[in-house]
Predict the structure of Phosphoenolpyruvate-protein phosphotransferase.
Amino acid sequence: NYKKELEIVEKPSKTKCGAHFLLQANVEFLEELPRIKTHGAEGVGLLRTETILFQKTGFDLEAQLDFYRKVVEASGDKPVTIRLFDAGGDKLLEDAETESNPFLGWRGIRMLLDQNELLTNQLKAIYILSGEYPGRIKLLVPMVSCNSEIEKLKENISSIKEELKSENTNFDDNLPLGVMVEVPSVALMADRLAKLVDFFSIGTNDLTQYTLAVDRGNEKISTLYQPFHPAVWKLIRMTKEGADQYGIPVTVCGEMASKPKAAACLMGLGITNLSMTTSALPKVKSMLCNHSLSEMQKLAEDVSESNSPDEVISLLEGFGS
Ligand code: PEP
Ligand code: MG
């Protein structure tokens, strides 16, 4: 029952053998905020900001700050990772132009780099917030597909910092900058990108659709949408290995992290930070608390050698039982 399920929330985030892990919340709407505490999230690993963007006031600096402050306050003293607007694809602005391939189109960072006012306003809001809550805010960039996008974004960040300095506004000069790994090119080049950023966050929802060329929202081909495809798993491993070369942390914030046995498998790969919808936190935590790292590593090794999604699914089903 519900009450029993939440007992796990009070327990330390450690595996059976004592290895630490970090479970955080994916947040999109203000209604979700109370569950950060009740479900034991240690901060927000992914704040989707499209809700505010799609409101009439979304472009407004104060309206943004107000939204972000509510999320940070609801997170106690824990960190909050704010993702830049990820408009385009399945998250369309009302007056969006029609594109023949929206998922391969003007989306996320691609759009932001062309819409200077939108980007500047959001960066400014996030940097101001970082001054109000030192050490607690991180910045995450969606839909990155090449290094140059990060280089360009950094130029924008430098100008924002100059502007804030000239206004005597406080901000965190070392605000951690992270990249969503959700396009295969980024996973493949993770070892080169890792030196440009402070962390990676793997978005398995988009990584699955782009790796398998399967639209995540198209019901006709939904059976082909296989997050447990070994190809997706291979890209997750490459991302982790790339990150390890520069010692930057990796989070998984896609749906995969919310499936307890998949979470165990990710942990077996050395990915100890997972961010998910709050309702999944207790069951994932209980899975990780009740198994040892060596069991999870064995699972991750077996999954790495699999040839098909079915093989991966049956390995996961057999885990821990
Ligand atoms: C993802 O793609 O896995 C992700 C977490 O981002 P979104 O679902 O918002 O596209
Ligand atoms: Mg995504």
Observations:
- The mean pLDDT is 95.
